[in-house]
Design the sequence.
């Protein structure tokens, strides 16, 4: 299969939220109505049951007017995914489509992925078993991997009426993105293609109208070295030598260390999400 990516051209978004509705419908996610937030934005942030939010950012123009900068906020599906590195149960993995998915059967609700997600995307949902005991599972956008397996496009992409969202071959999309970038530079001098190489790129790539920090995105995110050492070296060796139970305890210690220096490695002037 060709290398495909999801592309988000925020300069074409009109804030209609059709992508949000499509995501809820396809994934059978419950409604989460919120009170007035002081703007047109419907939800303050992503949740365990709201995997896609259109953010509204009011910006003053050079002529004294204003315009809305919208962003389709959802999982970026990092090539080097911090959530995957932080998970002590191997519950998070990459699919052949480049999507980062969570295996609910393996997830124990520890929350390490939530604490370490580069873009503050992963959230914990609370459930009850047949005896009424509560338990937690990590949840987020799956890039509609179940649809991709059937040759379909992600639900959000099919719902977008402005072609703000596209799912197509990577090289083709990036070529068109750079052409589009050149066209909008006069209007948006700080426009850029956001595909951070500090995490080896993402399967969801943005064309932003302004600096990433304006949209709450880290300028140059990176994976903390402690995460790489834990996932790629310490965990496999530890499981072989000490067993899974012991490594869960070790994992807690390392995950807490990762959490402590999380802000120092995400990049960005103010350590945004």
Sequence:
């Amino acid at each position: 299969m060709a290398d495909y990516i999801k592309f988000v051209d925020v300069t074409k978004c009109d804030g209609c939220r059709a992508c949000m509705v499509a995501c809820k419908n396809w994934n059978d996610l419950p409604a989460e109505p919120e009170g007035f937030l002081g703007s047109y934005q419907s939800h303050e942030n992503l949740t365990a049951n709201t995997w896609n939010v259109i953010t509204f950012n009011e910006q003053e123009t050079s002529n004294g007017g204003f315009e809305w900068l919208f962003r389709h906020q959802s999982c970026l599906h990092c090539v080097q995914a911090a959530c995957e590195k932080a998970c002590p149960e191997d519950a998070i993995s990459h699919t052949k489509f480049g999507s980062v998915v969570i295996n609910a059967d393996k997830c124990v609700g520890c929350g390490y992925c939530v604490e370490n997600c580069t873009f503050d995307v992963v959230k914990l949902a609370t459930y009850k078993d047949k005896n009424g005991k509560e338990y937690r599972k990590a949840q987020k956008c799956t890039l509609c991997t179940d649809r991709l397996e059937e040759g379909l496009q992600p639900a959000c992409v099919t719902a977008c009426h402005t072609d703000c969202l596209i799912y197509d071959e990577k090289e083709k999309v990036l070529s068109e993105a750079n052409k589009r970038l050149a066209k909008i530079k006069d209007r948006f001098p700080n426009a850029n293609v956001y595909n951070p190489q500090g995490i080896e790129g993402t399967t969801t790539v943005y064309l932003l109208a302004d600096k990433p920090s304006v949209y709450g995105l880290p300028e140059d995110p990176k994976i903390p070295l402690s995460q790489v050492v834990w996932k790629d070296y310490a965990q496999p060796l530890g499981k072989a030598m000490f067993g899974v139970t012991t490594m869960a305890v070790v994992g807690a210690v390392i995950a807490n260390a990762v959490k402590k220096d999380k802000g120092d490695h995400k990049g960005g002037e103010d350590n945004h999400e």
In short: Residues 2 and 169 are 6 Å apart (CA to CA). The mean pLDDT is 87. The domain at 1-29+44-52+66-268 is CATH 3.30.70.20 (Alpha-Beta Plaits).
